[in-house]
């Protein structure tokens, strides 16, 4: 019964992620959803900036702190290890939902691309980013990343797979294609408002910090293997000449990577 409850909990957390990521696409792209990054009535500038920065900061703190190994060791004293990742996913989804709900639009235009070809290219890069995000999660074990593998292993009485190095596709050229995916999607827009720029700048800063925290954890976990990988493969930009190397896989390897 405990295993079944854990599986149902994990499925619910995964469903919350699916809803959140689909809404995030519409939110950032000003598409379909009832509340997007530029929709609604703009309020006082100072108030809007403060609220938006606090919302972004709340997500950054939750997302990074709960991903650290020290926090996980403390957290699993109270939460079964099988649902630790699902709980992380669920809380991250709830924080993002709060951000979508309470976001204050700042519609002052920063740039507007009027050329149809250039606008189409930016839109294509926006969708490329989201497509690359989905692909990247499957390359490093999508269902483990979002907690389903752990809860079903508990249900079936199996031990989680051990961390290992492997060489999946995009990770041969860049170490963090998931983060690059977000950057492409957040910055590629024909119409950049001040609020959207605030969102893009803040998330970019967070991504650069999160990469350092994640790589510190990976170095502790995999030592010289990850150190060699980091020395041979670019962080975000796929410069030519990178060698075929390894990428971490297995339980624990996703670090603090969770899609916004």
Protein described:
The protein has 260 residues and is mainly α. It has one domain (2-249). It has helices at residues 2-29, 45-65, 69-75, 84-102, 116-139, 142-145, 148-156, 177-187, 194-222, 224-232; strands spanning 109-112, 164-166, 191-193, 247-249. The longest helix has 29 residues, at 194-222. Residues 241-260 have low confidence and may be disordered.
**What letter string, H or E per element, gives the SSE order?**
HHHHEHHHEHEHHE
**Low-confidence spans:** 241-260
The total tally of domains equals: 1
In order across it, which strands form the biggest sheet? 1-3
Secondary-structure-based class equals mainly alpha
What does this entry show, briefly?
With 260 residues, this protein is mainly alpha-helical. Helices cover 62% and strands 5% of the residues.
Which secondary structure elements does this structure contain, and how are they paired or packed?
Layout: H1 2-29, H2 45-65, H3 69-75, H4 84-102, E1 109-112, H5 116-139, H6 142-145, H7 148-156, E2 164-166, H8 177-187, E3 191-193, H9 194-222, H10 224-232, E4 247-249
Antiparallel strand pairs: 1-3, 2-4
Helix pairs in contact: 1-4, 1-7, 2-4, 2-9, 5-8, 8-9
Question: What descriptive keywords fit this protein?
Answer:
two-stranded antiparallel sheet; two-stranded antiparallel ribbon; 10 helices; 4 strands; globular; disordered C terminus
